[in-house]
Specification:
Elements (H helix, E strand, L loop, with lengths): L1 H22 L6 H4 L2 H17 L11 H26 L1 H8 L2 H13 L5 H18 L11 H24 L6 H24 L7 H28 L2 H8 L2 H13 L8 H20 L1
């Protein structure tokens, strides 16, 4: 069961990135882009979490505030970088950059949680650095490419890594109901872009909400499914099995980008494929050593 959940999670996360790229084909207000998928996700996750509460006997709900903190990091702050990254760098490239998250999370765990530094992490880091260099120096560019999109993608990967470490901290020694944890994490995540928009532009920031929701609701549904699969996979499966399988997210992003966007339109070149292979292998190595 955990193997199927981990593979499904990787597929859903990969397809989410492509769905976001497709959403940007519609005329949408850029300020609403980061918030729209999280609105959809919150609308799905919060009712499910509330319905699950009567069946959470034996679980410790007091630890949910830790998942709220994780949600502020990702999908909260990460969404502010992830959406423009996909818009300006393309689905394939951002999907590969997000594959760097396992090494980032391992490094943060060493610094924050005192976990040991293993030789395999050094090897994985080297592979990911080479893969990132291939990606950055690839002369081919997707439609609407802007180099800052690569920087945004790297920042989003770092924030996803921070969330992974916080989720590990939140789950250790606690029995938290998965749907309740997901609901809290998504709802607090949505609060971050909502607050940023409200403070920066006031009510005018939400004028383009309807077309943005139409453009990004598939991404919101896919993200909710992926996040639930992620929580359940780690609840029922061992890290040594789940982590390497979920690290294949970058590969699935490439597959869906090629099928739904097009190899030429998303500029999926041999260098991009090479970067994907190196970064996926690096992520899998980290997962196996976890």
């Amino acid at each position: 069961m955990s193997v199927a959940l981990a593979i499904l999670t990787a597929v859903m996360f990969g397809s989410t990135t492509v769905a976001i790229r497709l959403g940007f084909r519609r005329p949408v207000a850029e300020n609403m882009a980061a918030l729209s998928p999280l609105i959809v996700s919150t609308a799905l996750a919060v009712p499910a979490g509330l319905v699950s509460l009567p069946f959470t006997g034996g679980h410790d709900l007091r630890g949910l505030w830790r998942f709220a903190l994780a949600g502020l990091v990702a999908p909260g702050a990460s969404q502010l970088f992830f959406m423009p990254a996909v818009r300006y760098a393309g689905a394939a490239r951002v999907g590969i950059l997000i594959g760097m998250a396992p090494v980032f999370s391992a490094g943060l765990a060493i610094l924050a949680l005192g976990e040991p530094l293993r030789a395999v992490l050094v090897v994985a880091t080297g592979l990911i650095v080479v893969g990132g260099a291939l990606l950055a120096w690839d002369p081919s560019r997707p439609e609407g490419f802007r180099r800052i999109g690569l920087l945004f993608g790297a920042v989003a990967a770092l924030l996803f890594a921070g969330q992974a470490v916080m989720l590990r901290w939140a789950s250790t020694g606690r029995s938290i109901p998965p749907l309740a944890a997901l609901a809290v994490m998504v709802a607090t995540g949505a609060a971050v872009p909502l607050l940023v928009l409200g403070l920066s532009r006031g009510r005018a920031a939400f004028a383009g909400a309807r077309p943005a929701l139409k453009a990004f609701w598939p991404a919101g549904v896919l993200f909710t499914a992926a996040s639930l699969g992620f929580v359940l996979a780690y609840k029922y499966g061992r890290v040594v099995i789940v982590a390497p399988l979920t690290a294949t997210e970058s590969m699935w992003t490439i597959v869906f980008a090629a099928l739904l966007i097009g190899i030429n339109r998303d500029a999926i070149t041999r260098r991009v494929l090479g970067a994907c292979v190196l970064i996926v292998i690096g992520g899998v190595l980290v997962g196996v050593a976890a």
